[in-house]
Amino acid sequence: MHDSRRQSMTVSHQPGKSRLSEQRLAADLQAFQQSGGTIERLGDTPLRREKKRGTPEAASAAAVVAAVTAEAK
Known about the structure:
Blueprint: H1 17-34, H2 61-72
């Protein structure tokens, strides 16, 4: 049975093969950059912060409607 989690396109667990994969990745990256390709480096993704109990997450719909109505007058 084929288990896809055990195989990887970039890493080989066979002796001597992992170095070849590293060299191929380096060569592919260099060719990509020489052909004008760029890699966008993204920032860190902030983790969700714990919500405090009793603190409203957002204004209630009634409060928003009241504020909009008051501004319209």
